[in-house]
Amino acid sequence: MFSTDRRGSGFLAKDSQGLALTLSRAFDAKAFEVWPLLTESTLLGKWIGTWTGRAGVGKTIAFVMTEEGDDPEMITILGCDPPRYMVLELGAAGGGTWRLAVTLIEQDGNTTLTLQHYLHPSDALAEIGPGWDYYLDRLAAVWLGDEMPIWDDYYPALVGYYEKM
Fold first, then answer.
1. Which pTM does this prediction carry?
2. HEC states along the chain?
3. What would the pLDDT profile of 78-87 be if each residue is shown by its tens digit?
């Protein structure tokens, strides 16, 4: 069971694209086996949400969060090289955009998934960080066939960790 005193897994890292909240998860699988959980709408829907439209670099798809059932958000695919990486831009709640990069690095049959959420000065890490920990743990649960984590175990429990960044 999740411990409410657990630290978040994210950290800040700067690269040529800017400052990013960075989180990783490890999978005992090859990258091409993990990739469909990130790109196939029905599999993606098991942990975060579904998409419709015609996917491809430079194209925009409509994305609906699984748990929220809100109106679709538009996501533009800025870059994609299956099964290694994708770069997405999506509308953020309250306006503005979020840029996300997801990278899969395979070594010896194991894959590390790294998500980078590029930050704007107005982004609230205390809200964004627990959300990404939660959804990436949901992704891992789908992969492992485990029970889904409970949101209330992440928020507000991880707020303090992310506020201190």
1. 0.93
2. CCCCCCCCCCEEEEECCEEEEEEEEEECCCHHHHHHHHHCHHHHCCCCEEEECCCCCCCEEEEEECCCCCCCEEEEEEEEECCCEEEEEEECCCCCEEEEEEEEEEECCEEEEEEEEECCCCCCHHHHHHHHHHHHHHHHHHHHCCCCCCHHHCCCCCHHHHHCC
3. 999 999 999 9
